[in-house]
Write a structure and sequence with these properties.
295 residues; alpha/beta; Rossmann fold; 2 domains; 6-stranded mixed β-sheet; 12 strands
């Protein structure tokens, strides 16, 4: 049996290598030894994808709080919040008395992390997944830490089946499209996503082409960049759409009408965590995006 071009042996070796790097990263950063699963009953989760994995492993009863990016599933929105993952407060975290903190590597600022570790908090860093291999590794390692290996194995197996179905769909219909992702959050100037971004990775996973291929990272959006990119679909997040002023405001952005997407009214928004989170729903997101640009 093979998956995405890898034999089972190759797949296992690759996953084992990722897992070893994951464990080594945590060991280097943890201020205290990792407690056994049975002692990790009060967990603070930082990062939407991390929290989503804990729920998907049916371990949400251990959660005592999370950051504001943790809003899926809906129940996660109702637990105590400790702020935004990149601007944490040590006092707010320590007040919840967690046995362990499962945190995205985007968590910060660094001074707060050092303060927490010096206070004896068990801090376990979860790498930001760059692809589905990384998602699978994170699921398995969080499952190991929480003593939920059986649930983790099942979740990974289910996701791999979804991935195989997606690859079959792409093989059967090799049509593609040029997609451009616009990031517009926090009232700042809109940015467009080039390579080495989560938006680029989900676009390519769906079988489409990033219309900004050759551009690195996020760049300020200009009418010229839109016109030159000639996207078939303009993609943003639902929050970005709201902050832009809605679909009519997106249509009126200078340069949009000069693109196939603007002329054909192909402007779409998807939930940010679903689209960019690279968590348990990533294959679902890719298939949803694929359906959007194929319509």
């Amino acid at each position: 049996m093979s998956l995405a071009g890898f034999s089972v042996r190759d797949w296992s070796a690759r996953l084992a290598g990722v897992a070893l790097l994951w464990v080594a990263s945590m060991a280097a950063q943890a201020a205290t030894p990792t407690p056994p699963p049975e002692r990790m009953q009060r967990i603070l989760s930082i990062g939407g994808a991390v929290t989503e994995i804990v729920y998907a492993l049916e371990q949400e009863q251990r959660l005592i709080g999370s950051d504001i990016t943790s809003y899926y599933p809906p129940d996660a929105e109702n637990m105590p919040k400790i702020g935004y993952e990149r601007s944490l407060s040590a006092e707010g975290i320590l007040a919840l008395r967690p046995d362990a903190v499962l945190a995205s590597e985007d968590a910060g600022p660094p001074a707060v992390l050092r303060q927490l570790k010096s206070a004896g908090a068990t801090w376990l860093t979860v790498p930001t997944a760059q692809d589905l291999d990384g998602v699978y590794a994170n699921i398995r390692q969080i499952g190991y830490l929480l003593g939920a290996e059986i649930q983790a194995d099942k979740l990974v197996t289910d996701m791999q089946a979804q991935q195989q179905q997606l690859e079959q769909e792409k093989a059967q219909n090799q049509r593609s499209a040029r997609v451009i992702f616009i990031l517009q959050h926090g009232g700042g100037a809109p940015m467009v996503a080039g390579s080495n971004t989560a938006a680029d990775r989900i676009i390519r996973l769906s079988g489409a082409v990033n219309a900004l291929e050759g551009v690195e990272g996020y760049k300020p959006m200009t009418p010229e960049s839109l016109a030159q990119a000639q996207p078939d679909l303009i993609l943003t997040t639902t929050l970005g759409m709201e902050q832009a002023g809605g679909i009519d405001a997106m249509r009126s952005i200078p340069g949009v009408r000069l693109t196939p997407a603007g002329r054909n009214d192909k402007i779409a928004a998807m939930d940010g965590l679903l689209l960019l989170g690279f968590g348990p729903r990533t294959v679902v997101a890719a298939r949803q995006l694929r359906q959007t640009w194929m319509e």
